[in-house]
Write a structure and sequence with these properties.
Chains A, B, C, D, E, F: This is Germin-like protein. The structure is a homohexamer. By secondary structure, chain A is an alpha+beta fold. Chain A is built from 5 helices and 10 strands, in the order H-H-E-E-E-E-E-E-E-E-E-E-H-H-H. Chain A is globular. The N terminus of chain A is likely disordered.
């Protein structure tokens, strides 16, 4: 890739940021569709970032604001699947919102995690499941909020708090729709970030933090090295 | 109502505004739950504004972030029903998002309107329906974008543009979930605002704007005076 | 145009957006002047977007912040003329404001429209004219606010509401100055967007929305097809 | 004043701030009119702050968005008069813009100052005058930009930079309209803040800063003590 | 406490939020000092929130912007001490920044945590210590960044990422200054939130998340129940 | 430099702006490191702007978030030295904060100036020094706030106000750490901007503004022409 092109591409990374920094949902145009079909996007993908290059407005059409998905075909189970953030849905670029369809297998769960850039509001389409979040540090912090949701119920997870959901039923899946207040909410899965980081966090530090023997930490980290799946 | 109380209440109106102005989704606390169960809220409701008084954090519980809704019981048809904006869902206060469940009767529609404060992302739970939006004025503006959505499909309406949806099928309803990027998106239904305003807009102005005889305008406005339903 | 150049240009479209998203009026430099005199701008113009490429700060001079206009020479009548948004005034780029000089011929009007991205504050230089706006949907919504303005009077139209102005006098023009709280406020002229969209909105939908016979809608749309002027 | 009332009032000061902090121009309602006619406002005025208490929306009318001003009657000369910031125009509350009509007597000037919270865009209604601004510190900073404006000309002063205007003509006044991108732009008149502060700045510090003898500074400060006019 | 007063106070909680939501650092006045010395603040403190009631500007003095701290007297060791967020420093209210002085005893550490509302920039005054942060989930996420800092060195932790610091030296303390880009950054200590929440998180969920036997989780949670110190 | 490259570079200037405009501290990625080591950066430096090109995330490492500085080696005296704004510290890009280490020689001072884009919070590491700021124009404006700071003391300067610091001691230096709430706060040194601008401000204007004879102004400006040091 020629230097000129390279810098052109990396300038898009800056764009990603500058667009994201601005949480104000009124762009200077009606829309700025991410041009994912352009050849250079492949290079960007290799760079692990979506390009956020605006398509020529004259070439934009309704399909840019559309994403087909079959609710009858469950997505992979055990973990959430964000179905339409800006990485997968070019029309969301600069519009400050995203949507996910989530499937939970029987006894499946979405482990404790945070979304650093969005509040999440979730509604249940099928089944019964449990939602939880933990507040931040204060004299009364680290308080667990818990609720059971049935079909049609709605719940909101405030931005930044650690939260999780699980399907306690042995023989029925759960289907839910989650909307997030950012075109790219981000996610930090706690266990993976703390015990599965590359390279691993010092066992001495984690032993102190979790108030256990270093041996326990070593073993926890070993689990993640073996079967690490994000 | 004593002056003191009155000013206390109106100060809440200012709060509503100041909270809304801030589109940044990171509040200074984990949450600020709207205290709708307080006696003063009744007065506020009479004043046609939700209070946005934060509940004592120690009194907040999971139910504040929960809204029960039965997807099997359709909401009233022919028009959209925003099921959980901050007016109806105290936990959404300051969190920058809201969610609506929408039902369309056979041949029902959600007439052309705008949301001045939010982008809308919609997904279909049942049925088939048509979505449209029109871009703003430019040399190539007022362009209509159209798409047919089936179960599971997702579509996004950029903030501020005129948009609408309708169910073209004679014998099947449509159920959809819409998420909006504001705790209180607002709505302006074009026909009602232009032909049903109180008092009515001058017929001469509308005749020029719509390029018709004043008589046609008079008649259009008469329709709205008779069967005005918001 | 070589692919490299093309992507360079479209990256500017993204810039437009990212700059707009940010409504905060403090840029990282004193200014970022739109470089409209650069050759590539022609390509951008063909793409129907102003480039928002910052001029080399060393090349910026006072003329970049200046726009000549002759108040004695009226602009075209019957509709407003936004005299200095960022498309026409490079120095406004990133500065969060624009200014318009508006002329109304005798009996001229600025038809019902919205500015999705700005509040408008207007003052009368010559003549007498009428201003109106309609509030959004609520139990008490779609309320018409009306005022007559004389020379020197000031009026404000809140962001996003439908508003219009007209000169009721048969033999005197009106001259006004309007300031808007965005470098590119945008505009949606209601009648044109609803009855003049390309392609047209389904007559059945509009008939229901406006509570008239489909025939009336067909005829309204025909007017716009014939003498459409934006 | 009872403590309860006192705290109610001071809570308005916080409101002022919170509303101002948010530069996003889309409030949660169509408007939040400052209730300046309420009895408690007198107390607030004594506290040198406008209240920003929202009027009951049902009581709001077109006059709240209107300000009468007679362009034929010049305002006091020699210095600018901000004719409609939120302190004087309740309808501007939360709407992110303000407007000023400025009169310059023959040889009058608006001395070097900054607006910490707004960009200013100015247009000339009558006469000829000179505009200037100075850029901030950089290797090429503190550069003076200068322009002569005639009737109808427009000029923009970027937010935060030191700027000034003057009427060089011995026998003709200047009338201008200035719009600012904040409901309360604020102003810091350099000479008054540096040489007229209460208490005065140490003469030693100013002598070093301005590279003159302390005696010169003492004399400069004496001038301001005598005929201090803001 | 009378209902009226109660609602007055809770309205301050909303203020806290509205001020925080707005990350724009330009208030409508020069400052809005938190009035912590007012009687009602005691009630607010009981409610575990600082009041953010603006002091009468006429009563504000230099001490409101000042906080005495003796760098020779170390703060308590083993964990960080945020020395001047808005809870402890009234003048910071609405100004968008806070500062902490941090002491690490020999072998002391600040365990893995996130600041949901701020980037942290840290500089070392005395000693040598280690800083780490882990990136969020992506194909290449959960990457550990590590650095050793000596006296005078500066390091930045991007907002929202899990990070920690420790003093590896057996016989020398570390003193550091951390600045955060919010008047109230917030903190979530991972181990405490996950294993020390009240009530505890289901052992089954954590066993799956951390890929260990439920017995290990039970034991981890027991540690926290015994010697829980925030 | 080829046109293509030139426009690529200037697009970075726009990026600078768009990133700055957005004061919201949550980017769309964990970070966007300024790629200062790229060849094109030399050209950008000549253009007196840092590039804000994001490095390929895969190439980012801990050194990008690190800045070495030796607190034992004082920086140049008499004026402040901002040690780590984004121009000098690529990792700060988009993160909304910067840090400065400031040294004051005996009797040294940091002359009256403003930071248009940031609040400043300062803490003393060594010595005793004086801090001052002056409020903006109001009936009670241009008020001087003064405080003496000793080792460990903290003081905050609200955004946009004129402020300064000086070391009154004849034989001891002062060392301080200042954090600012922007990645690029900007600075306007009053005396230099008013009396040292290029070209100079008209003596007549300054004579009126400072209420002195034009001769005094001429002499003040002459001082700056001779020994101008920024």
């Amino acid at each position: 890739m020629a230097p000129a092109t390279y810098f052109l591409l990396v300038s898009f990374l800056a764009l990603v940021t500058s667009q994201a920094i601005a949480s104000d949902p009124s762009p200077l145009q009606d829309f700025c569709v991410d041009d994912i079909h352009s050849p250079d996007m492949h290079a960007l993908t290799l760079m692990k970032v979506s390009g956020f290059v605006c398509k020529d407005p004259m070439a934009v059409n309704a399909d840019d604001f559309f994403k087909a998905a079959n609710l009858d075909k469950p997505s992979d189970t055990m973990k959430s699947k964000v179905g339409s953030n800006v990485m997968q849905f070019p029309g969301l670029n600069t519009l400050g919102i995203s949507l996910a369809r989530i499937d939970y297998a029987p006894l499946g769960q979405n482990s404790p995690h945070t979304h650093p850039r969005a509040t999440e509001i979730i509604t249940v389409l099928e089944g019964t499941f449990h939602v939880r979040f933990v507040t931040s540090n204060t004299d009364n912090g680290n308080k667990l909020f818990a609720k059971v949701l049935n079909k049609g119920d709605v719940f909101v997870f405030p931005q930044g708090v650690i939260h999780f959901q699980f399907n306690p039923i042995r023989d029925k899946p759960v289907v839910a729709i989650a909307a997030l207040s950012s075109q790219n909410p981000g996610a930090i899965t706690i266990a993976n970030a703390v015990f599965g980081s590359k390279p691993p966090i010092s066992g001495d530090v984690l032993a102190k933090a979790f108030q256990v023997q270093k041996g326990t930490i070593d073993w926890l980290q070993a689990q993640f090295r073996e079967n690490n799946h994000y």
